[in-house]
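Hi P.,

Sorry for the delay on this. The queue was packed all week, but I finally got your sequence through. Input first:
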Amino acid sequence: MNAVPPTRAAPADKPFLIVGEGSDTVGEGLHLLRGQGHAFAAETNVGLVVVDAGPGGKVTAGMIAALRGLSDAPLHALCFSHGHLGYNAGIDQWLAHAEQRGDPRPRLIAHANVPRRLARYRETAGLQHRLAEMQFRRPAAFFERHLAMHDPDETFEDRLVIGQGERRVELHWAPSETDDAIALWAPAQRVLYGGAALIDSMPNVGTPLRTLRDPVRWAQTLEQLATLRPEVAVREFGPTLRGEAPIREVLLHTAHALRWLRAQTVALMNEGLNEAQILARLDFPEAVFGADWLKPTYGDPSYVVRDVYRAENGWWDRNPTTLHPASPDVAAREIGAAITDKAGVLAHASSLASRGEWQLALHVIDLLATAQGEAPEIAQARQLKAAWLRERAGQVRSYVSRNLLLSSADRLEAGTHAQLGLR
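Then the structure:
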C-alpha cells in the first residue's frame, strides 16, 4: 500500500493509498478501476455496478473517465466495499456525472453495518482526523478537508443479487478488516472482487490506532470465499490473482495464518504471559509467514497478536502503579527531577544508538524524553529520540509502523508531543 518514504512529512497534496490511474479488464464486462485501492466495475444487464467511488477530486474524476472509456451504459449502482473513510468520498462526483448525462440517480448500496460506522465516525470526527493524520503522516486538519462522508440509500445483510442471468453479480457480506466489508462475485465468469478482505499483505488486524478486529472472523470470510472457487480474484491492494488453485492457496493459507496467531497467543495467555512477554516469546515460522502474500507491508503479525490479547484482556498493563495514576504532567516532572545523572542516561542511550541498537536506545532515552523539567538534557533527549525514531523507521516493513514512527518524530521536533500524547 503505497508507502511514503521515511523522510519528512509527505506534502499535503500527495495522494496516499492511491494505486495509479486507468483500468484493467479482468473478464468480459468486468474491470478493475484504480483509485484509493482497486475499485471495481461490472457491466450488468441493468447497467453498471461500481464498487467504491474513490477519494474524490482528480482521482475520482480519473476513475469516471476510465470507466467511460469502457462503457457508455448508465450507472445502476454505487456500492461501498466497506465503511472506511476515503473510499467513497467521491460519491457526489458520480451522482453529478449521472445527472449531467440525464441518467437516473444510481442506487447507493452498502452493508447494513455501514451507517452505524459512519455515525460513529461523525461522533468522533476530531479523534478520527487526528488518528488519520498520524497513521498517514498528514498535516493538521488535512482530513477535515478530504474525508467527506455520504450515507448509502439502501443496505443489505448477507447477499444481494443485481441483474439477471449470466450478467448478474452478487454482493456478499465479507467481514474482515471491518464488519461492513463486502465482496463482489460474478458467478458466470467466476471472478471475485475481494475488497478489503483480500489484500497483498498480512491482514491488518491490530492496526495500532484502530478498534479491535477479529482475526478468526476474517479467516472464516476467506474460507467462505474459497468455496466459490474463483478463477480470477481482484484484491483491494496488490496484483490480480489468476487460477483456481493459486487463489485457493492464498485464501486458505492466509486464513490458516490468522488462526495460528489466535491459537498461539491464547496458549501463551493461558500460561500467564502478558502482552510484552507474548511478543518476546512468539516466533513467526517462515513456513506460515514467509508467503509472498503475507508480507508485513501494511499489517504485521505482531499487530494481530496485540489485538487477540486486547480482545481477551482489560486495559490494565499489570503494573499496579498504573491502576490509579497521577497526572501525567506531574509524574513526568517528578521523574525528571529523580534522574540526577541525566548525562549518564544520554551517554548510555547514545552508546546503544552508536551500535545501531535503535529500539533499545529508544527505551533508554525515554527515561528523559518522556520526563518534564527545565534541564537541557531533557530537550536534548527529545531531539535524539526524534532522530532515532527516523532510524528505527528504516528498519520496519509495515507502512503503518513506519508512518507512526515518522509522524511521532515530526511532532517531537515541532514540540507538539505533549498535546498528542507522544510522551
